[in-house]
Amino acid sequence: MSLRSLSKLDLVAAAFGLIVLHRYLTRKSKSSLPPGPPGLPIIGNVADMPTKKEWVTFAEWGKKWGGICSVNLLGRTMIIINSSEVMSELDKKGAIYSDRPRLEMGGELVGYSDTIVLLPYGQRFRAFRKYFANHLGPVPMENHIPTIQHETHRFLKRQLSKPGDLMQNLRKLAGGIILQLTYGITVEEGEDFFVNLIEGANRNFNEATVPGAFPVDFFPSLRHLPEWLPGMGFMETARTWAKATAAMVEVPFAFTKRQIASGTAPPSFVANLLEDEHTLSADEIRNIKFVASSMYAGADTTVSAEYGFFLAMTLHPGVLEKAQQEIDTVIGNDRLPTLADRPQLPYINALVTEVLRWNSVAPTGVPHASMEDGIIGGYLIPKGSIIVANLWNMLHDPETYPDPFVFNPDRHIASNGKPAQQDPRTMCFGYGRRICAGMSLAEASLFAAISMCLAVFDIKKAVENGIEVTPVHENTSGIISYPENFKCTINPRSEKAVALISQEYQL
Ligand code: HEM
């Protein structure tokens, strides 16, 4: 039968049939899971899961299966997002994709499930976010500028006297700012009790959350088996680590309470809120205590970004020179740059942005969990799915950032009628209602550290046996990723720089 032999009515009926068929097929695809690597019966894709640098494997899956793909982990769906468009759809439909997966070892047994990062989405979570916004949001950040600058100046002194201890110095810097803002605690030079206490607990948490390290994460009922059974040693570990978590939550809080009682507490998150303690309920006091302990979550990320800055400067002397020229021209060398200089230092701002893009601090973000069935990118996201956003891949997409592995602050400055490349801050801090709660503090801390260091230090490749050592930009695995250890030399730029570092803080 040819088309010509069909009546008009037949054609209309056929067209209608095609439309219905198309609708049916489209509807069917909308209710199916995103594509992904085929798995095995029962265990699904467990054996396909990468154990290190998961962002690289996830990016390969993205190339093969598209911007949204899925795997099956022992019956649980994991959705992997490789495209910024899909992530912004998740962002817009944020409410139902803003839970966190339950972590049996790190969360429930070791005790981090009461800190904001793991807190289930709901009323208590919203109360926590409000506390964060009221203390660390963009507006209150103005009050914290003196603390950020003062602690950064202390860092310059430490770096001058111990140039080989860059990582320890950066840890003290990030920890010092957060402890001051949270509890009014001033960190001591050398070993600091509070920094050691909190970093110890956070180290346990990092170990507890290494994927696959604790079978109880996959089989939660294991925790109810008798402890004399083989393989149950994790319960003893969990108890020891839970004690460290409790100390991290209680000890600095008690310190501030003692200071309040003796009338010596400087302003801080805890001191400001406990001023009228008698008006607060027991639940509110408990919430304040856990919000405070959650604030230190930002220290590791900031340290990684700052370490990334030193790596970038070691590898790109041209960028260092251009940045120093901007500071010398705008600020001169009679004083240190301050956060008030931000609008006058476009190249330094672009450099900070490029640090956030080039050295992905949280390459696969922090996993979210979906609270209801939903549709994203035309695919079904079943309730309870784990959602992982491959931020590293989005920040290194050559379509968005040509030559993505090159450190180039100029890409963030509009010029010759060409707009700047997409602002990486729309990606590197996560998305939806779980977007980083410390973004303003992160950016202010980074600007202060980067601008002040550029003003007074030269950062160069280390020389060993007369040969320059060129570091390789490699990153450690895990939720928070650091540049692998590298060598560089950090020397004051001049006698005047030494004098600026050594003077009393007077910004
Ligand atoms: C360079 C610095 C930083 C980067 C790149 C960064 C990045 C991120 C990312 C990607 C997330 C996960 C967001 C999501 O789940 O979608 C996150 C969450 C979080 N960040 Fe940051 N962060 C930084 C610094 C900080 C600082 C300084 C603080 C606080 C003092 C902080 C506090 C938090 C908290 C509390 C969460 C959990 C939010 C929640 O679960 O609702 N971060 N951050």
Automatic annotation (TrEMBL):
Pathway annotation: Secondary metabolite biosynthesis
Cofactor(s) the record lists: heme
Family designation: Belongs to the cytochrome P450 family.
Protein name: Cytochrome P450
Pfam hit, one: p450
Binding residue positions for heme: C436
InterPro entries: Cyt_P450, Cyt_P450_CS, Cyt_P450_E_grp-I, Cyt_P450_sf, Cytochrome_P450_fung
Keywords: Heme, Iron, Metal-binding, Monooxygenase, Oxidoreductase
Domain of life assignment: Eukaryota
Signal sequence residues: none
GO molecular function: heme binding; iron ion binding; monooxygenase activity; oxidoreductase activity, acting on paired donors, with incorporation or reduction of molecular oxygen
